[in-house]
Write a structure and sequence with these properties.
The protein is 42% helix and 22% strand. Helix 8 packs across helix 10. The protein is globular and about 60 Å long. The mean pLDDT is 95.
């Protein structure tokens, strides 16, 4: 991280001809459990990871916002007062839509974009893109805390999470919930963030991984996904249709006991989408209780059941993800599941620290046997949320 900070400061100076006013960072996240429950006003249990996006930022003497990054040759600039029109006309596109969308959303949240000073932003990241680890929320959250400080905005972390979500929903066009930004902004070491996506109330839940000799292994399949297109949007529409047919405002209002009635009122596909969300909400609650009462060794069956539900009821897994989960389970993982929005990305496995190398070798062999590209497997540790870097 120190090298990334120094290199980013140097890049900022090379691009702008001056020193940055500061460097801010925000982590990606792993969702321990609670998939596709967030936009259904349900429960989620993510944690921030030790892979981060950094932004070097410096105020300008004009009204321009300029964004550059290490992952694109493009430098994009717009007058801050023009952001609203650009967003309305769909002109915020590509990777730059994330930081520009945050600036726009801050304006919608009360910042006077005709009065604040312009700003240069240069972004770097070691959060894998398209792996289901929320590289997008890491950009939004790092830019959000940077601009809030530079523009002296009195916005707390939950408010910045809403800003990031609005940027992703309305500037980028991805219909995601509030989970990713909440995890990135509120994360704590060796803990998860229990979030009620209806009330937006949060609680920090200690994970106790180190004490139990356990760690989280991420298996990035390399199969890319994009939330702004395709199946994610269709799944959300199915959930909304199921809630309407059941006469509730969201699937949060249904319990496991309501599923027998739902089966008689919904077509098979919609019912299975609803069943996933309803049972996944209960699994989140059960996981929180198990962590608090018995520790991480007690949550394996819940992780396994979550994957089966996403595979069979929500149908968002892919063969590579199923293979990753099965291989981890067969080689001693406490539990395993795909994580993120699905249709690609990564799986996670809760494993003993001394079993990591063995499972990585088994994973490489299994993927080769099935003709899949070698996955990128790495350990992540629950870490601190967004912050200003020293």
């Amino acid at each position: 991280m120190t090298d990334m900070r120094d290199e980013l400061r140097s890049l900022f100076s090379a691009i702008t001809g001056r020193d940055a006013d500061g460097v801010w960072s925000a982590p990606g996240r792993v969702n321990l459990i609670g998939e596709h429950t967030d936009y259904n006003e349900g429960f989620v249990l993510p944690f921030a990871i030790d892979r981060r996006t950094l932004v070097a930022a410096g105020l300008r003497d004009d009204s321009l916002i300029r964004v550059a990054s290490t992952f694109s040759d493009d430098v994009v600039e717009l007058p801050l007062p023009d952001l609203a029109e650009a967003q309305r006309d769909g002109h915020l596109q590509g990777w730059a839509a994330y930081p520009l969308g945050v600036a726009w959303a801050l304006g919608e949240a009360g910042a006077d974009l005709s009065a604040v000073r312009g700003v240069d932003l240069v972004i770097d990241s070691n959060v894998p893109v398209g792996a289901g680890l929320s590289s997008s929320a890491a950009i939004e959250s790092s830019v959000g805390v940077a601009l809030a400080e530079l523009w002296n905005l009195e916005l707390d972390r939950p408010a910045l999470a809403l800003v990031g979500q609005r940027a992703e929903n309305e500037a980028v066009g991805a219909p995601t919930g509030i989970m990713d930004q909440s995890a990135s902004l509120l994360g704590r070491p060796d803990a998860a963030v229990f979030l009620d996506c209806r009330s937006l109330e949060t609680a920090i839940v200690p994970l106790g991984l180190a004490e139990a000799g356990l760690t989280i292994l991420v298996i990035d399949t390399g199969v890319k996904h994009e939330h702004s297109t395709g199946g994610y949007r269709e799944r959300r529409a199915s959930c909304e249709a199921g809630a309407a047919a059941m006469g509730v405002s969201s699937l949060r209002d249904l319990s496991v006991e309501d599923l027998d009635l739902a089966r008689t009122m919904l077509d098979d596909v919609t019912f299975r989408r609803v069943r996933h969300v309803v049972t996944e909400n209960q699994r989140v609650l059960d996981t929180v209780q198990a962590l608090r009462s018995a520790g991480p060794q007690a949550i394996g069956d819940l992780l396994d059941a979550s994957h089966r539900s996403m595979r069979d009821d929500f149908e968002i897994s892919v063969p590579e993800l199923d293979l990753a989960v099965e291989t981890a389970q067969q080689n001693g993982a406490v539990g395993a599941r795909m994580t993120g929005g699905g249709f690609g990305g990564a799986a996670i496995a809760l494993v003993a620290e001394d079993a990591v190398s063995r499972i990585q070798v088994a994973m490489d062999g299994a993927f080769a046997e099935h003709g899949f590209d070698t996955p990128d497997t790495f350990v992540v540790r629950p870490s601190e949320g967004a912050k200003r870097e020293p």
